[in-house]
Amino acid sequence: MDCEQTGINYTVQLSFAAIDKSGIAFGHKRDILFAVYSFRCLFDNEEMLKVDPTLKKYECTFETEVTAHPDYITHKAEFEKIIAEKGAYAPHGGILLYDKSGKPTLRFDAGSEVWQKLVALGKITGQAAEVPIKPTLYRTALDVVSLKGASDELKAMWYLVFPYVMLIGAPHEAEIYYKLKEKLCTDKVFDAVLSGRYGMGVADSVQELWAAELPNTVIDWFMPYIEYKNEKNEKGVSRDVQRYQKWLAAGRFSEVFAGTEKLLDTFPDDDTLLLTNIAARISLDTVKNNDERTKLLENTIEIIESVLSEPNEKKAFFLYYHALALVGLKRLDEALDKLDETLDFNPNFESALLMKRAIKSAMEKARE
User: Fold this and answer.
1) Beta-bridge partner residues of 89
2) Which residues pair with 61 in a beta bridge?
3) Which of 330, 252, 336, 343 has its CA nearest to residue 297?
4) How many CB atoms lie within 10 A of CB 308?
5) Sheet harboring 95-98: ordered strands across?
6) N or C, which terminus of the chain has less Cβ within 10 Å?
7) Which uninterrupted H or E stretch holds 97?
8) Measured CA angle at 246 (ends 262, 155), to 5 deg
């Protein structure tokens, strides 16, 4: 699993910051931090190969000289060999990290073998010598989203990430599950999910969840959000499509293209959605290869022509985007003809009038 793409990394970092800034006791912070950190480590060891300042601050993770390792003196040659090879794993426990000059330091966590030996030797004392008491993953999620300073963004990320807790087989705690739903299934949190980039990964219909054969708890979890994002306004435009329209206006073309392509699988007959997708296709700035861009624009024209093969209330908009696709292909004469067709259908289409003038001006300059 890609913890960056799924938003797990971002959720963990937001959680660390919120726990650190909260007013709860040091020991309670330490316990929750260690639980969030342990959850992250279930997916890969990336978090273990660095020293997070918050984890270090609350004595969940430790960093010290390699020579402080309790087995360094008796196994010095073995240590030096691994350090010379820039190995990551220290012999007899711990992780080796290297600065820019190549100097190594020893990293280890509370409760680890190295930590236990240093505690026994009296090198680690006080609260740092106590094993963090991790709450269950269900309780951890509830504790984090219940923090006084928990933002809607943090809650939105836990709404998206919590299903992974269920999918990895954590024991189901029904009472906490429903408390989480009560806290997270709100319009404010759903708005934050919808406006964030990680929300694009949520299924677009309950049928999609069933087809994926997900557990009933996960389906039940996502159902309120799916209903919320698919709810339409008085103009018949869903919140999901409105999100992509806003992103389109903000120039987030690649995200709009990817998101609307996915959404069209569920709602292929939504003309507003399709127009948003077409606008993103034409404006897409991530396609650097001319052949790929030509293919994309030609495919876009095919889609438009297919739509216009039957009567359509939004005909003027489809004709206009047809013209824009032709401009992208540098077929300016054909683009002018298509704009004339657009204006025949809607003489007051301001964007079409402006585009027509711009094309004529460009063609006149080219002839000079």
Assistant:
1) 95
2) 109
3) 330
4) 15
5) 61-64, 104-109, 95-98
6) C
7) strand 95-98
8) 75
Query: What is the per-residue pLDDT across 308-341, written as a single tens digit (0 to 9) for each?
Result: 999 999 999 999 999 999 999 999 999 999 999 9
Distance CA 68, CA 358 (A): 72
- Nearest 5°: the CA angle 55, 57, 62 is 65
Give the closest residue to 44 by CA, choosing from 168, 148, 209: 168
Q: Where are the alpha helices (DSSP H) in the chain?
A: 8-21, 26-40, 53-57, 76-84, 113-120, 137-145, 152-167, 174-184, 187-195, 206-211, 216-230, 239-249, 253-266, 271-283, 290-307, 315-328, 332-345, 350-367
Q: Residue 30 is encoded by which pair of tokens? A: 């330490």
Pairing mode, if any, of strands 95-98 and 61-64? unpaired
Spatial distance between the Cα atoms of 109 and 113, rounded to a whole number of angstroms:
9
* Cα–Cα distances in angstroms (integers) from residue 26 to residues 14, 36, 64, in the given order: 18, 15, 22
The pLDDT tens digits of the residues spanning 42-95 come to: 999 999 999 999 999 999 999 999 999 999 999 999 999 999 999 999 999 999
d(CA 299, CA 358): 25
Lookup: tokens for 151 = 């933002």
pTM of the model: 0.90
Q: List CB contacts of 210: < 8 A, sequence separation 6 or more.
A: 219
Give strand pairing partners of 300: none
User: Nearest-CA neighbor of 337 among 317, 354, 359?
Assistant: 359
Q: How far apart are CA 104 and CA 337, in angstroms?
A: 69
